[in-house]
Write a structure and sequence with these properties.
about 130 residues; mainly beta; 6-stranded antiparallel beta sheet
Length: about 130
Amino acid sequence: TPVTQSQTSERLVVEEQTLSENRIEPIIKPLPVQIAPGNPILLSGIVQETTQIVVKADGRILFDGELQTGSRPRWMARESLELTLTNQNAIVLSLQNQPLQFNDITTQNIQLNINRTQIHISPSEQ
């Protein structure tokens, strides 16, 4: 059967809605704890399963590689930390020794940008 113009338009609208529903919008959260001026930003983790991660502090790459199960990495920065995680469930993160929760994020590949006032969470392209 031939497809009419209105059926084509309806199909496009449905496909656009499906795409936009699958797209994760960036989330901005307040920090779980205040960081006193002069104190470094301290991020630590406990690796639950071997995973790839990239960590930048103040714009410089600190780590780009694989973390092994059971390792307990720690990173410090003056103004900002950026993490690219390929499996957010592979590592339990703490900021200034306070646990970070990402229960509302459904994608595994995420990027975290942490500064002195907030955490910006967005999907990663990796």
